[in-house]
Amino acid sequence: MACDKGFSSHYMLLKPEEVKLFDLFHILFSSDIEKRKFVDSSEGTEESFRRRWLIFISVVAQKFLLFVAKPLSWIGSGIEFMLNLLSVNRNLGVLLLNLLRGRIIMPDKTSAKFVSFIGNLDKRVELDSSFKYGDGRYFATLSMMASKTAYENRAYVETTVRDHWKMEYLGFYDYWNDYQDKSTTQAFLLRDKNDDHDTIVVSFRGTEPFDADAWCSDFDISWYEIKGIGKIHGGFMKALGLQKNTGWPKELPTNTYKQEDNDNRPAPPEPLAYYAIREMLIKELSKNDGAKYILTGHSLGGALAILFAAVAILHEEKLLVERLEGVYTYGQPRVGDEKFGEFMEKKLMEENGVR
Q: pTM (2 decimals)?
């Protein structure tokens, strides 16, 4: 795969959209993986049956998720609608009474009162007032709530940040996945500022229960090995902004992306997460020499948070590395191998003592 060798000469990329049934089962009995069109690898063979079995499971899971994506989304939307229908009408009894009266209140999916499935499991909105800036648990508590809030819609996030937390809302964004060819990544930014500190929080949304695209990113066991850093989970890299044609260039082409066959294609309709957030952070941090920032997220969001820091280090983004206050993740899946973990710990401790 010539397009990716610019940043990784050792890789294994799965392409479930190109799988054929015979090839899929054949991989279980043959170590010769270079003949399988749905596997693009720098290695011609894979002797370990366990690893071939994991490839098989990963591809089957992704194919199944893609097949049930729409009905899964409909089921999720239906459950969320019913939960919010009960909520806006106060309870089941009032809902039935309103139904008999013909005065039933219908939930608005775009309103600040509409709560996601995950949000219905934990309806806390307010920050814990017992933790103040300077307390070692303050940022951890703020990050936890930001990670939970990232599952909600734009209006809910904005209202929560501004009206409940009394902080500056910097925006909620959808980001493009170049491999899934759609916007599958979400994140929001806020600024927690007073006389004592100026801290920007970047919160990535995790895996929603009924979002097949997010689950595909989780199940995609593609990997890339970056020299001196280690092996990194390919599905998470794709969600953060890895490109098919150029991998992780420090700067993006302005208008078009060059493909292997030398054809041009337009830039994606939505920005790529890493690059867009990087530019926003540089802009905001440059306004105040004392400003810092935090990366956080739950589940998939946690993986994207730590991977954002890794790519910033890879690109030698001095401002971002020096101003990183911390990375707080919850329920984070494994992002890379042991070498990657050691690299991140060493680099963050060297620069600013972040653990």
A: 0.90
